[in-house]
Write a structure and sequence with these properties.
Organism: Paractinoplanes durhamensis
Strand content: 15-25%
Radius of gyration: 15 Å
Protein name: MobA-like NTP transferase domain-containing protein
Distance between the termini: 15 Å
Order of helices and strands: HEEHEHEEHHEH
Number of helices: 6
Strand order of the largest sheet: 3-5-4-6
Structural class: alpha/beta
InterPro entries: MobA-like_NTP_Trfase, Nucleotide-diphossugar_trans
Shape: globular
Number of strands: 6
Helix content: 25-40%
C-alpha cells in the first residue's frame, strides 16, 4: 500500500515516509520516525516536516494505507489548495467527515499549526489530527468521479478485500 501512496505523489520532491520503510521499497524516499516512536500522527507530521526543505510550497499529508489513492486525486487537492483562500484541502466523504490524512497543505501553514499545537500542549505525543486542524483553515473537497474514494483506508482484512475488489 505504501508503494501505491508514493506513486500518487510520484513528482513530489522529497518523498518522506515517517515510520519503518521496507528494504525492498521500489522508490527512493527519505525516512524518519517521531520521537518517541508511537507518538501518533501529529508527532509523525512534525518529524516528517523537519525533512521538508524550506522552499517547498505544498506538502501532501497522507496515511500509508490508502491503496486507491491516485495522482489525479492528489492533483485535485493541490489545485484546490492553490486556488482557495485556505491553508490546505482535504476530502470530505459522503457522510460529511473530513479525511484528514488525505490532504495537501501549504507547507508554511502546516509547520505553523504544528508549532502552535506544540506550544498549546507542551508536547505533540498523542495529539490528534483533529486538534491540529483547529489551527488550520481547510477547504473540503468532494470526490465526484466514478469508482471508489481515494481516501479509502485499509485498517482490517475486510477493508483490504474490499480495496482489492474495487481495484479489479
Amino acid at each position: 500500500m505504501l508503494t501505491r501512496v508514493l506513486a500518487a505523489v510520484h513528482d513530489a520532491d522529497p518523498r518522506i515516509v515517517v515510520g519503518p520503510v521496507p528494504p525492498d521499497l521500489p522508490v527512493p524516499v527519505h525516512s524518519t520516525r517521531e520521537q518517541p516512536p508511537g507518538g501518533g500522527p501529529v508527532a509523525a507530521t512534525a518529524a516528517g516536516l523537519a525533512l521538508v526543505p524550506e522552499g517547498v510550497t505544498f506538502t501532501a499529508l497522507l496515511a500509508a494505507d490508502l491503496p486507491l489513492l491516485t495522482g489525479e486525486a492528489i492533483d485535485v487537492l493541490r489545485l484546490t489548495a492553490e486556488s482557495a483562500p485556505m491553508q490546505g484541502a482535504v476530502y470530505r466523504d459522503a457522510e460529511g467527515r473530513r479525511q484528514l490524512l488525505c490532504g495537501v497543505w501549504r507547507t508554511a501553514a502546516l509547520r505553523e499549526a504544528v508549532e502552535r499545537l506544540r506550544e498549546a500542549r507542551g508536547d505533540l505525543h498523542g495529539a490528534s489530527v483533529r486538534e491540529l486542524m483547529e489551527y488550520l483553515r481547510v477547504a473540503e473537497v468532494s470526490w465526484r468521479r466514478p469508482g471508489p474514494p481515494p481516501w479509502f483506508d485499509c485498517d482490517t482484512d475486510d477493508d483490504l478485500r474490499t480495496a482489492e475488489e474495487w481495484a479489479r
